[in-house]
Amino acid sequence: MFGNTAECAADSAGQGCLSDLKKVFNKLASVNQVQAEGVLNGPFQLFLDQAGLFVLAGVFVMLPEKRVLETIRGGTLKDADYINDAIKEVGNLLIGSWDRVFREEQKGHKHFKQTGTFVGSIWDNPEESIGLAVEQPCRYVICRMKVDDFPEFKCAAVFSEQLFAAEDPLQAPQDAEPAAAPEPEPQTEPKATPLPEITYTEDNPGPVSESIRQMTQHIEQNDTTGTTAAASAQALPKLSAGQIMNPAVLWVDPEDTVEDVLRQMQQHNVGYVLAGRDGQIEGLISRSDIAAAISPYTRPVFSHWRRPMDDAALQIRIKWFMSRPVHTIRPDVSLQTVMETMLRCSVRGLPVVDAGGTPLGLVSAYDVFGALLADAGVSMSGRPQQAPCGG
Amino acid sequence: MAKSLMIVDDSATMRKIIIRTVRMSGLEFDRTEEAGNGKEALEKLQESPVDIVLCDINMPEMSGTEMVKEARKLDCCKETKIIMVSTESAEELISGVMADGANGYITKPFTPEKFQEKLTPFMN
Asked: Which fold has domain B3-122?
């Protein structure tokens, strides 16, 4: 939210019981209760380890770095109480972010809502504190997170197996305990109609539970075999980011104005520029970022209605509009990884950097299209140096 | 002309964060009020109206959606611009609260740029 850099990567995933997480969340932790509605329907939990809750809440309320580092190592429940409101809000923001991702990418998703936050040691009485028993069967995805230069920490999404059993209307009765007496029929709502048949294709990955199942299986598979390439990836051309990148990248200073940057982009006919100094990337600017920054009244066709504030917007420094943090890739990564990174990070431009972080070029989605078309034998002469537009 | 602002959120931390983010956006207000829920906000607005309200949705006592409906019944709030600020991003909720009289919607987590984009049209 405030220019901090944050990275998150899947660490491990599994299917077992809550106690499997004891090693990771053995000290203080915050557990956010989330109520899901839609294809994933029911409660699940979002865990942050001790370092995670103190780093995120500490950064959120701008605690001194030294204080945050102290609490990562030896913070107590009293320290957590002091920033309890921030811990709860950080959880709420994480859930909100996740809700947004699911809304954009998961058909049938309706809603994630924070219903409570527990801060303390989980293992004293987890059933009471977080609503999960120690031996509760569950599935979990553990992620590594890093914010700025603070030490890495871990978070996890934990889904009780009941969540998946309840989702399948045919499976649920078989999994249920044999009941002594039938449950009375609800008086208010009619029974839900059976779910329509879902075909699992690349375009339609199915319910969230299926996505989570696939994700956990994929990570587990990688853990044991190191296999990463999907069979379908074999159809992609064997090209690397370094082979398709454009090495001629335009740089601007973050202190340049929107007007300066727009002029340079027009002069050089590029869709992306890097902002930074001394070869250090501080931000990425696309024409979409510029379009969002300037008023439509600056266009000649609307000049009659042009106001002083429209001109003032052109003088805002580009650092307020550039995309940060910047996702980068190495030159040796495959075309598949380039495409996956663009999809995962919702970006259409990726700077290519070497192992030392030195920028080598930039790959845009249009470079990817060009590579795919070239592989299919389609000539694209006259293509601009970079994407003419995009974000 | 200088404008006045009210932040309505049950989290004191979040109110401070919003104030900080608004400041980072470059927008300036001559007066900033705070309220912990919709009821408290309405009481304060009746005593001393403001130009722009940034309002959370899920709050105890009176939610943001209820506050918008009630505010629109008050003469003192007829011209007040109310922008909802929430992690809730369901389309039906957003269109519902906009139909009830909200003037904008910002989803958390937010950025200074987002505040600038949403509030600038109401600053003149």
From this structure: Rossmann fold (3.40.50)
